[in-house]
Each structure stands twice: as structure tokens, then as C-alpha cells.
């Protein structure tokens, strides 16, 4: 089992999932805290901005262990702008249109945007594995 885990962690996709879990946990906690004092849209936006910083650091140093210089720094906001737009749409549909619990809406957004974000991040950082 240890060998399998070590082999799996050589994959950027596996490292992306681990980094994503760390980022998701910390930003979701921030979202829930902000939700106590701010509307869901503002809470989501502020937590998302914090997540961009965390994602850049984790993608650069842990997931892809590479970058394309300025291109990575410039590409990352565009990658996450796309994720933000799709996520905010999911959030709005979940809460305003369907009337479901606003505390769970970001989790649905994450599930729907994960493949898009990985693919674009891999392009932005030049990851191969």
C-alpha cells in the first residue's frame, strides 16, 4: 500500500487532489465564517480570493513543481476567473433558483469546476505528469 501511495503521489493529478483538499478545506472554513456576517455572494468571493493565493503557492511548489515564469503568474488569475464564474453560477442556481442550503453550494461548485481547473492549471504551470 505504501508503494502504491508513493507511486500515486508522483502524479500531478494526485498531488492536485491533495492540494485541492487542503485549499478547499481552508477556503470552505473561511466561507462558513464569513457567512456569519456577510451575504453568500460576498463570502464566496472573499474566500475564493484567498483560495487563489493558496492555489498558486501549492501548484507552484507542490503540484507541478514548475512554472512558466511570468506566464504562470498571469495565467493563474484567468484560470481562476473561469472557475469563479462557473462556481458563482452554480452557487446562484443552487441558492437563488433551487432554494437549497447556501452552506453546501460551494461544494457543488467545486465538484463541477474541478476538471476544468486541473486542465487549465496544468497548462498554466507546464506540468507533464
Defining traits:
129 residues; 81% helix; globular; mainly alpha; single chain
Describe this entry's structure for a reader:
With 129 residues, the chain is mostly helical. It has one domain (8-124). It has 5 helices and no strands. Helix 4 (70-97) packs antiparallel against helix 5 (105-125). It is globular, with a radius of gyration of 15 Å.
Number of strands: 0
Query: Into which percent range does the helicity of residues fall?
Result: over 70%
> Can you give the mean pLDDT?
85
Beta-strand percent range: under 5%
From the spread of the alpha carbons, the general shape counts as globular
> What is the count of distinct domains?
1
Largest sheet: none
* Number of helical regions: 5
Cα(first) to Cα(last) distance is 21 Å
Helix and strand string, N-terminal first? HHHHH
Give the radius of gyration. 15 Å
Low-pLDDT stretches are none
Q: Which structural class fits the helix and strand makeup?
A: mainly alpha
Quick synopsis:
The chain is mainly alpha-helical. The protein contains five helices and no strands.
Summarize the helices and strands and which ones pair or pack.
Layout lengths: L1 H7 L3 H24 L4 H24 L6 H28 L7 H21 L4
Helix pairs in contact: 2-3, 2-5, 3-4, 4-5
